[in-house]
Amino acid sequence: MKSATAVKDPVCGMDIEKATAAGRTEHKRQTYYFCGMKCKEKFDRNPEQYVGKSAGTPKSSQDCCS
To answer: Do 34 and 43 form a contact (C-beta atoms < 8 A)?
Structure first.
């Protein structure tokens, strides 16, 4: 069962907990959470590329963007 505080990183699709997210960004009054700073930086450069779209196949923690 998925945790009530689990969210998807909009860049890579990884499931992460809000409390332990490596980063977060506010965009159009919505908060987005990220598994690592690389994903946050990608999102911050071009949020419209990721907003409202399904993230790609989730990466394993070893291959992730942190």
So the answer is: yes
